[in-house]
User: Fold this.
Amino acid sequence: MQWILPRAVYDGETFLSDVAVAFENDILVARRHISALPAEVAPKPVPEILSPGLFDVQVNGGGGVMLNNDPTPQGVRAIAAAHRSVGTAFVLPTVITDHPDVTERAADAVLAEHGRGGVLGIHIEGPHINVARKGTHDPARIRPFDAQTRALLARLREHDLPVLFTVAPETLPPGTIADLTRMGVTVAAGHTTATALQGEQALAEGLRGFTHLFNAMPPMTSRAPGIAGVAINSTAYCGIIADGHHVDDRMVALAFRARPCAGRMVLVSDAMSTIAGPDRFELYGETIRVENGKLVNANGALAGAHIDLKTSVARLVADVGISPVEALRAATVTPRDLMKLPRQPLLGSHRDTLYFGKLQRHGA
Assistant:
């Protein structure tokens, strides 16, 4: 049995100091305050914080693989492995707007890998979004919500696969969100031009989250808060990208501090295949490349993110000024709460599914 003494232990609620943990065959089997350890046990001090594993609910690719381009079990495994190699233990592989057969194949691939390698479910982002806020999504593949998509979602839920489904609420027939919510789908608003009223109506139907807050939605103004204003004022879950490119760090800080209750911000990477992979890839027949730390298309527009979740957590603390507890909560506990998944216990967890990291604000 190997005892170590992390700088702190985050148990999903708070930081614990002077707490040692023991691993046996890479499984965390014991946790004790140092005052309760036998005299003969001398835990090895380590400078990192220990916490439950990071969980990224928006992972489009990794390791040179995009789920849209390789919607197979092998593709899903490669993406999950790439993110685990850089510190993200759990993922929702994400398929963005595409032809129905691509979405179906991606869903079947994730279903085949569910529960293995940290794959906890699927995020289907589009194709039922607003073309006016399409972002990098192909407008030719955007379409109205239809029976085919509903049947796919029903089939996935019949197999108990957790599903995060991003849609533009204003494009859906009334009652659709309520229907999907009853089915057990986690519905989020994204790539949307919804007004504040439309956003509130969606929340009343059961909308549970908002995808990459501020991005692909109208900006808030004093007399038109829009869906971004509704999201911040709500008790729903808000995903946010903290790479320093998609959202200004000051706006990230505002969102965290303006929420009416704690534990409703979900840190996401929106990572593409360049994480642990080559610095460029093809999407919809167009080359996307890393340029000055961000992913851009031929026109220089943002096209996904070149950041992993562990780096995102560190940026939240170092550059945005979010406390380590809040930053870790947004990347561990809150994503599970969003998806109604059990929280990960420290005891019994494999070392590879835990987070070890140094979190310190610049200049501190």
Summary: The longest strand covers residues 88-96. The CA atoms of residues 279 and 291 lie 9 Å apart. The mean pLDDT is 97. The first helix runs from residue 73 to 85.
